[in-house]
Structure formats: structure tokens, C-alpha cells
Design a protein that fits this description.
With about 525 residues, this protein is mainly beta. Helices cover about 5% and strands about 40% of the residues. The chain has a seven-stranded mixed sheet, with no helix packed on it. A six-stranded mixed β-barrel has the order 13-14-19-15-18-17. Strands 2-9-8-4-6 form a five-stranded mixed sheet, with no helix packed on it.
């Protein structure tokens, strides 16, 4: 949802020459004596994997081969090996060892090209099956790219009063900002939260050094009188933030955007006491978040589907943009040109979207988790590997329908700025935690298995089911920085029809977010894929 806050493969079983292997060929009845020999027989759902075009140095999403035992004896897989010309560019993990008759196991394969051009390898499955080894052909193409990337991390958050804030499941990057036109009056702002549920760069006034802060002046539009400033109220799912719009030169990775409007939150010149009631009460939560402690980060970079902050929906009611003096404010209709832009859309390599790459995360992790954000989606014109599934979203607000517990949540959304799985507590209800954590889930027995089904907004029959393991929130400690099963109750104005696929949805995936007015694998964006 546009909130200002926060595959088909043809299944083809390999034809096996079983009659000779089983001694069952020919006409005529069986001979006398002895029972039929018990044998293990392999069947594969894929005999080849194509990874398409992949940017050099970037790891593809994993593709799976399912190994089924269709024989009558236990299948024993002795080894799974990679061979061929470019074997070093592919990697595999396997659950295959001993497989009972009618059982199966999986082999996961990824591709990381180190140069431009076609690459190939073979995956060999060695076993006691009647035919061994079985071979799967692997192919992919590396493409030279100028894609800009930036390192991202999940850790305990920014330092406040000499100690880490103690955040959980928050994805951060470092943003380099300078006074407009300066190469010396600059500052690296660490622990800026990455949010695919909003648009625009927002920085806490309190983290700017004195020289940089003094060089930044509020934006004023032609319709405003001298001395008036453009002030924004950002309404998040958990509160609101207030402050003026100012201009900086921003660098992400290796690319710079000059003259970028940003939201400076908590600027003392324009205190939140000036905020109209429409700002403080019309959002999902009336909680003010104008300090690092309340905000949970030194800033936020909104890299969602949309090119402007709130688009044509911004109304002159004080809920978003305002015309302010240091003593009074009135609601202001901000044109598209006056709104905060999506900063990544202005980067030379990022104009069509972003890719967020995060590793698999366990139930609870106490050490930082590293990831990568790639600016620009697809190696060429939004083209993704064939095993990636694309889901279009509502072009007005970025939502889609998700089914959970026999209920359709028609305003659901994918949001890296949410730190957990959030959804209304449907029957059969999940146990919640004791006070003061009653907004979080603490399932009986320590965990519960759930699933939610995503529907494409344009083609609702195109679906994907997401498995979720929800863990007891009370088991996490102050040192936990990442948790795959953090979940809570989604409530508040306008959110009762939503299922929030927060940061845990991104774990172990390459998630693509395609900006409006672009395409992703031929589908009109806004869209996401994984």
C-alpha cells in the first residue's frame, strides 16, 4: 500500500530405459522361483536449469531440482557434484541422502557469473539407483553491468547516548549527503532504514552535524510568501514524523543525485506543535516519531513502487504537505514536482527499480546480517530469470489481495520497512504475548506454521503461497538483531483489510521492486517479483 512510512516450469519426468534395467522386457511369462528384485529408481522434475541473463558478480535466485524415488528400495544418494567448463560459477545445496520409496528430496542450485558470456555446467547425482549418475544440464549468461549497488545490514541500530538502540529486523544502509554544490560540507549518515513501502529520503535533524545543518534551507514554492516553508507530515503505520523539506546532494553507492529534496524530521525551527490535527490524528497511529529513539533509525530511504511521495492523492488538508511560518501552518496541495521523489529512480542505473538480496535468517540471530541492494531491476529492460514470479500490484496504492485463514485481505502489501509479519488475528486465534508485548504473537508451544496466498492484482488467478513459521516473540532477547518469525497484530485506521509481508518475507530471497511506468518480464509495473 502506498503508505508514507514506513512459474511455471513444464514438469517433464525423465524417460528411463527401465525395462532393460529391471529385466522386464520381452513377451512370455516369468520364470519360476525367486521374488522380484527390489530396486531404487530416480525420477527428476527437471533435467536442465536455465538461469537466463545474470549480472556479473550477482548471485541468481535459487532453482530447485526435485529427486523422487519411484522404485521399491531405499534410494541412497552418495554424492551430488558439479562438473563441466564453468562448474565453479554454480553452487548447490542438497537435502538428498537416504530417500524411501515414494519419497523425494531437493537440490538447490544458484549461478554467479564472473564475466560476460554464456556459461554451462553439469550437476551429477550419484546413487544406488538403476541408472547412475543422473545428470542435470545447467546454463546461464553473464552480463557486464554498470549496476550500482550498496551494502545493507541488519544490526542493533544507531547509537543513542553511547549505546546501540537495540533494533530488531531493521534493514539499514549508509547515505552520503552534502550541502548543495559542495564536496566538503558532507556527512555519511549511517543506519538509514530501507523501506519499500514509501517514497523519499528522510533524515533526522538531530543526526546532522552543525555545518551541514546550517547550510540546508527549507524549500519554498512560488505560491508561498517569503518566509514560508514547505513542511511535511509523514504518516507511518506506527506514528507520524514532522519537519521541513530541504535540498541535499545525495550519493548512494557510486552514483550521485544533485539537488534532491529530502524530509528533515524534527527540525526545531518548525516544532511539531505546529502540526495540524489532520497530521497528528488521521493516520494509523497518533504517536509522534521525531527523534532517533522514537523513529528507530537515523533516517529512512523510501524506494517503493512510486516516483513521488504521495502522487495525485496529496490533498490540501494538512495530512501530508503544509505551508508554514515558524508560528503557524496551513494545509498545502503539493504538485508532483514539489513532492519528495524516489531517490533511486533518479540514479543512472536505478531508474526502473531495485533488487534486495538477503540471506536466509534463522529463528533468532544475534550477529549482524549482511545484504545487498542493487539499483536497477533485471539485466536488460526489466528482464528477470525464468524462475522468478512477477506480481503486479494496484497502480494507485501498491496493494494486492492475500488470503489467510479463509479471509481475503484486499489491501495487503510487501514492505521492507515493517520488521515482521503483521496481520489481524483470525480464528483460530494465535496466542499473543503478555503485557507490555500484547501486540506481538507468542504461539503456544513456541512456534506455529502458517501460510498466506498472494494474488496478482491484474490476474488474480496468478498466485503464490508463502509459508510462514511464526515464533514466540518472548523468546527473543535484547541481543537479537534478526528473526525470521517475528509477527504481530496489524491494527489501526485503514489496516484491518491488510496482510503485511514485512522484512522476514525478504529473507533468503532476491526480491525485485519495479517502479511505476516500467515493465518487469513484460508485465506493467508497479510490480514485485521473487
Amino acid at each position: 500500500m502506498r503508505i508514507t512510512h514506513g512459474f511455471h516450469f513444464a514438469r517433464a519426468l525423465l524417460a528411463l530405459a527401465l525395462c532393460a534395467a529391471l529385466g522386464a522386457c520381452g513377451g512370455g511369462g516369468g520364470g519360476g522361483g525367486g521374488g522380484q528384485q527390489q530396486t531404487a529408481v530416480i525420477s527428476l522434475d527437471h533435467t536442465s536449469l536455465s538461469f537466463g541473463t545474470q549480472s556479473m558478480g550477482a548471485t541468481s535466485p535459487a532453482q530447485l531440482v526435485t529427486v523422487s524415488n519411484v522404485g521399491t528400495a531405499t534410494l541412497v544418494v552418495s554424492s551430488v557434484t558439479l562438473g563441466g567448463t564453468n562448474a565453479a560459477l554454480f553452487a548447490d545445496t542438497s537435502t538428498c541422502s537416504s530417500v524411501a520409496p515414494s519419497g523425494n528430496c531437493t537440490i538447490s542450485v544458484t549461478f554467479t557469473p564472473n564475466g560476460a558470456g554464456a556459461d554451462s555446467a553439469t550437476l551429477s547425482i550419484n546413487s544406488n539407483a538403476t541408472v547412475s549418475p543422473f545428470t542435470v544440464m545447467l546454463a546461464g549468461t553473464g552480463e557486464a553491468t554498470t549496476a550500482n549497488t550498496v551494502a545493507a545490514t541488519i544490526d542493533s541500530g544507531p547509537t543513542v547516548n553511547g549505546a546501540p538502540l537495540g533494533t530488531l529486523n531493521i534493514l539499514f544502509v549508509t547515505v552520503h549527503v552534502c550541502a548543495p554544490g559542495s564536496t566538503t560540507n558532507c556527512q555519511d549518515i549511517d543506519h538509514v532504514q530501507v523501506d519499500t513501502g514509501s517514497t523519499g529520503l528522510r533524515l533526522l535533524s538531530s543526526v546532522l552535524n552543525a555545518n551541514l545543518a546550517a547550510a540546508l534551507t527549507p524549500v519554498r514554492t512560488a505560491s508561498m510568501a517569503a518566509g514560508h516553508a514547505l513542511i511535511e507530515c509523514s504518516q507511518f503505520a506506527d506514528g507520524y514524523s514532522w519537519g521541513p523539506v530541504k535540498v541535499v546532494d545525495m550519493t548512494l553507492g557510486s552514483a550521485t543525485v544533485a539537488g534532491l529534496p529530502v524530509h528533515v524530521i524534527g527540525d526545531p525551527t518548525y516544532p511539531s506543535t505546529l502540526a495540524p490535527t489532520a497530521c497528528t490524528t488521521s493516520g494509523p497511529s497518533p504517536t509522534e516519531e521525531d527523534t532517533v529513539t522514537a523513529f528507530g533509525a537515523n533516517g529512512l530511504i523510501g524506494i517503493g513502487y512510486f516516483l513521488q511521495d504521495c502522487g495525485p492523492n496529496c490533498a490540501s488538508d494538512g495530512s501530508a504537505y503544509n505551508d508554514c511560518t515558524p508560528t503557524a501552518c496551513v494545509g498545502y496541495f503539493a504538485s508532483l514536482a514539489e513532492q519528495l521523489p524516489n531517490p533511486v529512480s533518479l540514479l543512472p542505473s536505478g531508474s526502473n527499480g531495485v533488487q534486495i538480496q538477503l540471506p536466509t535468517v534463522a529463528e533468532a540471530v544475534d550477529t549482524p546480517v549482511s545484504g545487498t541492494i542493487v539499483f536497477g531491476v533485471g539485466a536488460a529492460a526489466g528482464s528477470l530469470p525464468g524462475n522468478v514470479s512477477v506480481f503486479q500490484v494496484n497502480p494507485g496504492n501498491g496493494t494486492f489481495t492475500a488470503d489467510y485463514a479463509s479471509t481475503s485481505f484486499t489491501s495487503s502489501f510487501v514492505d521492507s520497512g515493517s520488521n515482521g509479519w503483521y496481520f489481524p488475528n483470525q480464528a483460530p486465534a494465535i496466542a499473543t504475548c503478555a503485557n507490555p508485548d500484547q501486540a506481538f504473537y507468542c504461539p503456544t508451544g513456541g512456534s506455529v506454521q502458517l501460510s498466506a496466498t498472494i494474488h496478482d492484482w491484474m490476474t488474480p488467478t496468478h498466485t503464490a503461497t508463502v509459508g510462514i513459521t511464526l515464533y514466540d516473540f518472548s523468546q527473543f532477547t535484547n541481543s537479537t538483531v534478526a528473526a525470521s518469525g517475528l509477527g504481530g497484530i496489524l491494527s489501526g485506521s485503514g489496516l484491518t483489510s491488510s496482510f503485511d509481508f514485512g522484512l522476514p518475507f525478504f529473507f533468503g530471497k532476491n526480491v525485485y521492486v519495479a517502479f511505476e511506468n516500467t515493465t518487469l518480464n513484460g508485465a506493467a509495473a508497479p510490480a514485485f517479483a521473487y
